[in-house]
Design goal:
CATH superfamily: YlxR-like
Radius of gyration: 14 Å
Number of domains: 1
Number of helices: 3
Strand order of the largest sheet: 4-3-5
Shape: globular
Structural class: alpha+beta
Number of strands: 5
CATH architecture: 2-Layer Sandwich
Largest sheet: 3 strands, antiparallel
CATH class: Alpha Beta
Order of helices and strands: EEEEEHHH
Distance between the termini: 30 Å
CATH topology: Hypothetical Cytosolic Protein, Chain: A
Amino acid sequence: MAVRKKIPMRKCLATGEMKPKKEMIRIVRSKEGEVSVDLTGKKSGRGAYVSLDRDAILTAQKKNVFASQLNAEVDDSVYEELLSLVDKGSKPKQ
């Protein structure tokens, strides 16, 4: 019998959809309160996930969901970085 590996699922803050972790991008708030994009998914701090989709990112920006979930001020440069990742086509290999 082949053993199936469990696929970690995460919930997108913007759309509410459950998706595999590899299809999402993580936003992290460090202990100092700095919010940044976590491409590796391994930075320490409070994390939140969003789908790697232009509409989902724009919805998150409009609703300001990262600021409320991370309890920190989210700079527009974070959203610009997310949109540039979407425009490149996909999440970089880890």
